[in-house]
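Field notebook, page 153. I keep forgetting to write these up properly, so this time I am using the form the group agreed on. The chain and the ligand, protoporphyrin IX containing FE, are recorded exactly as supplied. Prediction of the bound pose follows.
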Amino acid sequence: MTSKSVLLDRVRPAAEQPLLRPGVDRASIGKLVREFYFKVRKDGRLGPIFAGEIVGDWEPHLEKMTDFWCSVILKSGDYNGRPVPAHLKLKDVTEADFDIWLALFRETAAELFAPGIAAVFVERAERIAASLKLAMFFRPGSAAAPPNAAGST
Ligand code: HEM
């Protein structure tokens, strides 16, 4: 490692650094994605939402989500899509649905990874979920303030 990259690792927030650990690679991330969406599809609330959007072959979605998580966790650069517009068009999704989504994700990550690694996946998922929720549900000027608004508790 060069002194420059050591310096960058000090100043870069953890979320911008690749999680370089044995056993965290495209294969294990792909397994996480597949097991997670297996649970999602069986879920009474989320299953029908996804079934309404993904008609037929799930493989392209699973590969896209593997690219997405490899980019988030390994900084692979495999994903170059735009998650916000993909979710803005989902008119039936509520904020409570994100709790279900996160609970299933947390459960799957805990089944497949050591606790410290699972915690990194979950922390990133929670942050992305929070920003998707802001984009989907927060209306400036409405009574509800964003969760991290100044003065909110
Ligand atoms: C209740 C919560 C959620 C629901 C119902 C939901 C549903 C969906 C659906 C239906 C799609 C489109 C699938 C397709 O046509 O290929 C999608 C795409 C996607 N979702 Fe979610 N999602 C949720 C939460 C999340 C969260 C928390 C994340 C990230 C941590 C996420 C990341 C993505 C990404 C990256 C895509 C692909 C967007 C693209 O590039 O086309 N989703 N989601």
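OBSERVATIONS:
- Residues 46, 49-50, 53-54, 61, 64, 68, 81-83, 86-87, 90, 93, 97-98, 101, 125, 128-129, 132 surround protoporphyrin IX containing FE (CB under 6 Å).
- The mean pLDDT is 90.
FOLLOW-UP: compare against the apo run.
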